[in-house]
Amino acid sequence: MRYYFKKPLALVNKLPVKVNKENGKPIGTIIKFPDKISFFRDANLFSSERREKQELAALTFEIAWREGDNAAVVFHDLENDKKLAFYEDETSIDFLHLFTTESEFPIEIIQKNTMDRITILFHGQESAFIIIQDQQILLQLIDENTNVPDSFFFLSYFIAILSKIGL
């Protein structure tokens, strides 16, 4: 499955970024708030009822996460009440190499150099690619059988950006 959204020049508070399927059908919105970046699904796509948009996930940047010494970008899965902290692998030769220490969700986010696509590994297997183009961010899900929520993949580009800014 493929998704895309317009590459924001800057992520401005409360200015929505629409996430679309490859056929152009919108599936949700990414919005930056002062304290987090959130993904909201469009409720009318998943229900016959007209409701407010539902926040499924959020990202925060945490200093000394869980009383540790390291800063982390934290993915908050609001649907399943889980948190995944992403840390930088300081021993890696790659431009970007993030990982979780959660044994149930062993995820790595790797970018070999600044011009390469970003690869997301789940249990050591390629699960998704993020391709950065001039005006768009393309997300290619390879393995849809992971138990990782789709909202994680929609926010994964911003996990990479936050880590380069803050970690």
Model description:
The protein is mainly beta and 167 residues long. 13% of the residues lie in helices and 45% in strands. It has two helices and twelve strands. It has helices spanning 43-46, 150-166, and strands spanning 2-6, 17-21, 26-33, 36-41, 54-62, 72-77, 82-88, 96-100, 107-111, 118-122, 125-132, 136-141. The chain has a twelve-stranded antiparallel β-barrel. A hairpin with a 4-residue loop joins β2 (17-21) and β3. The chain is globular.
Distance between the termini: 31 Å
Instruction: Report Rg.
Output: 15 Å
Q: Count of helices?
A: 2
Please write the string of helix (H) and strand (E) elements: EEEEHEEEEEEEEH
How much helix, percentage-wise, in residues?
10-25%
Q: Please tell me the overall pLDDT.
A: 87
Q: What is the total tally of β strands?
A: 12
Unreliable stretches covering 5 or more consecutive residues: none
Which sheet architecture does the biggest sheet show?
12 strands, antiparallel, barrel
* Major β-sheet strand ordering: 1-2-3-4-5-6-7-8-9-10-11-12
Question: Which structural class should the secondary elements be placed in?
Answer: mainly beta
| Shape summary | globular
Strand content: 35-45%
Layout of secondary structure:
Blueprint: E1 2-6, E2 17-21, E3 26-33, E4 36-41, H1 43-46, E5 54-62, E6 72-77, E7 82-88, E8 96-100, E9 107-111, E10 118-122, E11 125-132, E12 136-141, H2 150-166
Antiparallel strand pairs: 1-2, 1-12, 2-3, 3-4, 4-5, 5-6, 6-7, 7-8, 8-9, 9-10, 10-11, 11-12
